[in-house]
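Progress against Task 2.4 (sequence-to-structure conversion) is shown through the following example record, which the project officer requested during the mid-term review.
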Amino acid sequence: MEPRERQLILDELCASRVRLLDLVVNLTPQQWTFREAPDRWSIAEVLEHVIIFENFLKGVITRTLNEAPQPDKKPFAPAKEHHVFEIGTNRTTKFTAREVTRPTGRFPGAAEIVAEFRKTRAETVAFVEQIDGDLRSHFFAHVALGDLDCYQWLVVLAQHGSRHAVQIEQIKADPAYPTA
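Structure tokens generated for the chain above:
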């Protein structure tokens, strides 16, 4: 990975960490658990999902890099690049989270979720700072975009927090959202 590519990912991880933490500071228990609809996630569930997704994806990238490269898939990767780079800002396309990354109430309260998010994000930053190898020759399927190379997955990982920050802003903008 080129230094500018790594820095782009690190900058996005830092920006989304700050943004997510700003969005969840001083929320009441009712605000943490408010759902816009029964089938929508609460702010607590959104942040739990971000944590789970980051840990899941770091594991998948590590395993994928230990497998044989798939250079036959490289010609198709550039056509997906623009989709990868707009995942964080474009919520018009909804994705269904993999079962393994869905929130289940793993954390007892807001303080624990925030502490786990801080810990996970620090581990994710360290992962991105240290990862090496031919990221562009190893692929893993995205639920909607199909095969992405491991560099593209790092971009998705970095953009993921921003995508869910927008979701939290939408939750907070709901007319029924509890006041502090």
